[in-house]
Specification:
Layout: E1 4-13, E2 16-26, E3 31-35, H1 42-50, E4 57-62, E5 65-66, H2 72-75, E6 78-80, H3 92-102, H4 107-120, H5 136-148, E7 154-158, H6 166-183, E8 186-191, H7 194-200, E9 203-208, E10 211-216, H8 218-223, H9 228-233, E11 238-244, E12 250-253, E13 260-264, E14 270-273, E15 279-288, E16 292-299, E17 302-309, E18 321-325, E19 332-334
Parallel strand pairs: 3-8, 3-9, 6-7, 7-8
Antiparallel strand pairs: 1-2, 1-4, 4-5, 9-10, 11-12, 11-13, 13-19, 14-18, 15-16, 15-18, 16-17
Helix pairs in contact: 3-4, 3-5, 4-5
Bound molecules: adenosine-5'-triphosphate.
């Protein structure tokens, strides 16, 4: 049995099925993200595990113990919210020590554990400061330290980085992953940010309208999205129409003439000279992303997005005629959506 197991977990709010029959097995030391659009049931799932929301159906098993109806405190899980919820009148070290004081941990051990965890999150030089004297990223580290100091079996993170600006967010993604690896703690994170889920997790659980629609390692999720919704939600995707020939091979065709839905990632399309490749087009617009150029190309199959790495050479101008090419094994056949998002 896995370290943490959700079995047919469900939550109803009156007429609303917030979470429906969710099964998930998380191994010890694994970092798993719950990813999905607003209202899909991510937070409700996390809150049921934390014990803040009553379970309507199913079970939660942690390390062989059924904790479905246990009191939140007796579960002893570490929880970090997007709002940090630090005590403003307490110093960094007192914020971190709080959970240990509540548990009546002896003073010498308390001091040693607080010092150790402050070092882990690299806040040891700021132990005496108050939350108002810290940056957003530093406050987030205090919240993380406070959750980790009690040495919980599982760390639950609810959109922990959503209050941070883009650069800091990226830096903190690396930090959270480093800390999680160093401690080896089993972690479940809620996020609606697909790039965050892909970059930080061992596995990603995609949720849609209260249901789990795909569970995979980030690379597989990106390369083999199961449904139309997932292909568009996780990364950018060109949606094309396809037809199977007699031998089962799939070919791209004009909209309305095919019988399968296809996805082709923008970076999988190569731009060639006019007259070359599988399809002809014209650059209709371009966007500079620094390390990449993103081109929108008008073609007989519709407007396609193409991403090209910036190798330092000048970009293609709008209006340029181009050929588009791709390896046919990079086309992904998608299923229709089983649930409406
Ligand atoms: P977000 O990213 O916006 O936080 P989420 O995926 O975390 O969304 P949840 O907060 O889990 O979604 O909500 C799932 C569904 O349950 C939504 O339809 C929401 O309106 C509903 N819901 C959540 N909490 C309650 C509540 N206390 N009472 C009634 N309905 C609720």
């Amino acid at each position: 049995m896995a370290f943490m197991q959700l079995e047919g977990l469900g939550k109803r709010y009156g007429e609303i099925d917030a979470v429906v029959a969710t099964d998930l097995a998380v191994e010890q030391g694994e970092f798993v993200s719950l990813l999905g659009p607003s209202g899909c049931g991510k937070t409700t799932t996390l809150q049921m595990i934390a014990g803040f929301v009553d379970v309507t159906s199913g079970r939660i098993i942690l390390d062989g113990r059924d904790i479905t109806h246990a009191k939140p405190a007796s579960r002893g899980l570490g929880v970090v919210f997007q709002s940090y919820a630090l005590f403003p009148h307490m110093s960094v070290q007192d914020n971190v020590a709080f959970g240990l004081r509540m548990r009546k941990v002896p003073k010498a051990e308390l001091q040693q554990r607080v010092a150790q965890v402050l070092k882990l999150v690299r806040l040891d030089p700021h132990a005496e400061r108050y939350p108002r004297e810290l940056s957003g990223g530093q406050r987030q580290r205090v919240a993380l330290a406070r959750a980790l100091v009690i040495q919980p079996p599982v760390l639950l993170l609810d959109e922990p980085l959503s209050n941070l600006d883009a650069n800091l967010r990226e830096e903190m993604q690396f930090e959270i992953r480093r800390i999680q690896r160093e401690v080896g703690i089993t972690t479940l994170m809620v996020t609606h940010d697909q790039s965050e889920a892909l970059s930080i997790s061992d596995r990603v659980v995609v949720m849609q309208a209260g249901r789990v629609t795909q569970i995979d390692v980030p690379y597989t999720l990106y390369e083999h999205p199961r449904t139309e919704f997932i292909s568009g939600f996780v990364g950018k995707a060109n949606r094309l129409c396809g037809r199977r020939d007699g031998s089962g091979e799939v070919h791209v065709c004009a909209a309305g003439e095919g019988d399968v839905s296809l996805s082709l990632r923008p970076e999988k399309i190569t731009l060639r000279g006019a007259g070359e490749g599988r399809l002809q087009g014209q650059i209709s617009s371009r966007f500079f992303l620094g390390s990449q150029w993103l081109y929108s190309v008008s073609t007989a199959l519709g407007e396609l997005t193409v991403v090209r790495g910036n190798d330092g050479s000048p970009p293609l101008n709008e209006g340029t005629a181009v050929g588009l090419d791709w390896a046919s094994d990079l086309l992904r056949v998608l299923r229709g959506d089983e649930v409406s998002a």
